[in-house]
Amino acid sequence: MPLKSGKSQKTISSNIGELVHTFKEKGKIGTSKPKSTAAAVKQAAAIAYSKAGQNNPSNAPKKELKKGKNGPAKVIRKRDGNDPVGIY
Question: Does pTM surpass 0.70?
Fold first, then answer.
């Protein structure tokens, strides 16, 4: 069955489920053959998000501290642990 078109999380989730189901039946997704079910789920997520025209949230770049003059930046926090006071 072809993948559904749409951008909602419900549609993306059903597309991932459908792709994983075909992997369990046939042992492949399209023309590729992932080695494990975990690899198939990752590939199915990439395909489903691509079909929806969105970025896969698990592939988002991680935030890193910017390097300053004296090494990595330090975040100064308030004593109550809320928002940072300043970044040096």
Answer: no
